[in-house]
Amino acid sequence: MKRILVPTDFSNHAEYALKVAAQIAKKNNAEIYILHMLELPHEGNDALSEGHEIPEIMYFKKRAEEKLDELTQASYLDGIDVSEIIKIEGTFEGIIGISKKNDIDLIVMGSHGSNGFREMIIGSNTEKVVRTSEVPVLVIKRDTPDFNVNKFVFASDFSDEIRDTFAKAVEFSNKFGAHLNLVSINTPNNFKSTSVSEKIMSDFIANFKIDNYSTHIYNDVNIEKGILNFANSINADLIGMSTHGRRGLAHFFNGSISEDLVNHAVRPVITFKI
Predict the structure, then answer these.
(1) Cβ atoms within 10 A of the Cβ of 42, count?
(2) What's the pLDDT at 55?
(3) Neighbour-count burial for 232-254, b at 16+ CB within 10 Å, e otherwise
(4) Per-residue pLDDT for 204 more than 80?
(5) Which of 13, 237, 251, 260 has the fewest CB atoms in 10 Å of its CB?
(6) What are the backbone dihedrals phi and psi of residue 55, each rounded to the nearest 5 degrees, phi first?
(7) Residues near 265 by Cβ (< 8 Å), separated by ≥ 6?
(8) What is the pLDDT of residues 24-80, one digit of tens each?
(9) Could you please report the per-residue DSSP string of the chain?
């Protein structure tokens, strides 16, 4: 984990993410890329494509540069190699593009979540990044001066398709010396007996070398509530999941448990795309 990307809109929640990224960077001798996206009206983008420098655009870019310079002077970034990036593009597209261009290993984003009608209709940039990013995305909801991962919950159905993403979760857990709590959520709509669930998990884990872990089966009304309630019951430091990256109608009708968790969990959530 050598390159960490932190998108910022200069909000408090974005700085919460940057503070956590700084702690991770220091533990892994990593560098941080701080990205600010300037989203412009269509006429602004048209002008740029024609090579014009609109005064209003240059003003906002200059202000963003000043804010980034001020942000990088924060004491919690001392000793870290920090790069500043300003890009004029849609926020979601820009984050994904910069991530690929710079071979980013981890994206750390702040989010205040959303609920109800607003969440259903417009979603959030964080949610879109979680859905599509090829690299792990860590979402931070609150100020965390001491980001330690001692209890890491990883929820899954432990099917063969998550093998690669599970390996990334194990690697992340090992970097923090965390205890990995592997949990299978049992729901009324997808019920499995304890013996069946235990065998599925046991057979899956046999393919990996993991020492510091435990397995759990938790019953609840649905998967999202089960994960949140289990994480609360053990006072977890971090929740991890694989995500399928659904798009279009499939996403609208089926939803995404990982995106719901990003919106509703207070604890940090990290996602790994299948």
Answers:
(1) 7
(2) 75
(3) eeeebbbbbbbbbbbeeeeeeee
(4) yes
(5) 251
(6) -55, -40
(7) 113, 141, 228, 231, 239
(8) 999 999 999 999 988 765 544 554 444 545 677 788 889 899 999 999 999 999 999
(9) --EEEEE--SSHHHHHHHHHHHHHHHHHT-EEEEEEE----HHHHHHHHTT---HHHHHHHHHHHHHHHHHTT-GGGTTS-EEEEEE-S-HHHHHHHHHHHTT-SEEEEE-----HHHHHHH--HHHHHHHH-SS-EEEE-S--SS---SEEEEE----GGGHHHHHHHHHHHHHHT-EEEEEEEEBTTB---HHHHHHHHHHHHTTS---SEEEEEEE-SSHHHHHHHHHHHTT-SEEEEEE----HHHHHHH--HHHHHHHH-SS-EEEEE-
pLDDT for 173 beyond 90: yes
Question: Is residue 246 predicted with pLDDT exceeding 90?
Answer: no
Q: Are strands 238-243 and 269-273 parallel, antiparallel or unpaired?
A: parallel
3-state secondary structure 102-118: CCCCEEEEECCCCCHHH
pLDDT of residue 146: 94
Q: What is the pTM of this model?
A: 0.88
Tokens 């979402």 belong to which residue?
139
d(CA 125, CA 231): 25
Distance CA(18)–CA(112), nearest Å, equals: 15
Structure-block tokens of residue 220: 């609840």
Q: What pLDDT, on a 0 to 100 scale, did the predictor assign at position 211?
A: 86
Instruction: Please give the pLDDT value at position 57.
Output: 77
